[in-house]
Write a structure and sequence with these properties.
heterodimer, A: 434 Repressor (Amino-terminal Domain), 8 helices, B: alpha+beta, five-stranded antiparallel sheet, 19 strands
Chain lengths: 118, 352
Amino acid sequence: MTHFGDYIRNKREQLQNRDAAAYSLRRVAAQIEIEPSYLSKIERGLQPPPGEGTIIALARVLEEDPDVLLALGGKISEDLKRIIKQRPSLFAQLIRELKDMPDHAVLHLVREVRDGNW
Amino acid sequence: MITLNQNQLVVSFPEVHEDAVLSLNFQRTLRIPDNDKVYPLPPGLGNFPLVHVDDYRDEVPKGWLEHGGIIMPMYQSEAMWILFSASFSALRSSAYPMAIKISTGKIDAVTGAPHTNGLHPHPQDYLVVPGQPWLDGYCVKKGMIRQFVAMPLGEGYTAEEQITHKAEHGGVQIVVYPMKAEAYERLFPKVEREIWGSRSTGGWGAPGSMPPPPGSAKMMMAAGGQAQSMGLAPGGRMKQEIYKDRFDINDWDTSKCSRCFVHIANSLTWREITGANPPHRPPTAVQYADYGLPWFDYYDENLKALSGSSKLANLKSVQALSQLKGEPIDNKPVNTGSTVKLGPGQVREGDF
């Protein structure tokens, strides 16, 4: 599985090829309001992934899907936690049932507007 | 099947054809004055929020649960129009044709007849998309509609009450039939060229505000208690053509249909049911015109217009009835200035 630090470093360096100044370690760290040395340690795997807010800010700067970065960082966003907490056993069962389902089948699993008697 | 995605109803028939996808959304707009003038098309001011009736099982009246469907908030005497956006197939240079029946209070908005199942060509009681980009009201005459205006059910204003003399259903009823897959593939064969990408017609996937989450506010409906249901009534005159079906009636697959009952809640009822505030009131037509903002005209010279329904033309408008009742509504005339001319695929939006 991709390491969180490797993933964000690769992504930042790809963006740096496009715009060296905007995606320097220092500039990215400043944009997400952390110290450059802390970001460097995260990228090298010397520090665990940061908190949810910082990961979401990092996703925005690196043009990444926040849910993907959160998952790589071993976290679940607060809104998903709230949804799961409402019906924990049902959602746990649902996710286990879906784990091997192909993407197109998951995408078809959507909620219909119920039609009644009129 | 019908799903709700960011305040749009998405109708699809994956069992018929993968291209058979259509979205409908309900556009907030200004109410045009009701006088001698036939007004151009007012703008779209964004989607109304939509929620599943089933998300508010404890808050809605039993009758709404029986109907299923969705809930939409409207202020009394607020207007709306329905935008149809079919998903365009670049491979076949067309969107998948669908026939759409729109009723208000189970009265067909094209013919004025009570809602029936199936499609009827004489008189035509449905719209065809692509071709018909939107519907703003009741088809009263060739090239002219009377705007959909929300009024409380039970006060005699709605088309349903004027025609059936009962305040029974309210809301909007939508039924969609797809074209037969065989007809679609015959009429729109694959274009034999390299396709670099596809595009969608305007409005498809446009982000709207998210529906509010299931609310905590409880409105215990007393046994037999009635939330304030709203229906639609005819408002001012607007220039709009309802187009004749250009396909053969046998090209439609009437063995498949998707239906949805759209319940209209007034602002107070919406707040009590969902715990959320409805959108702010739209500007008046006078305010909008004073800002010099655009009005619209739509042309599709390849399509023929239906002649309109005398039954619907004979209905009394909200303005006329409100005068009779001695409770007149705001009806100041406006000068719409020049209009923006639109053709197929162009959007009709106003920033206010």
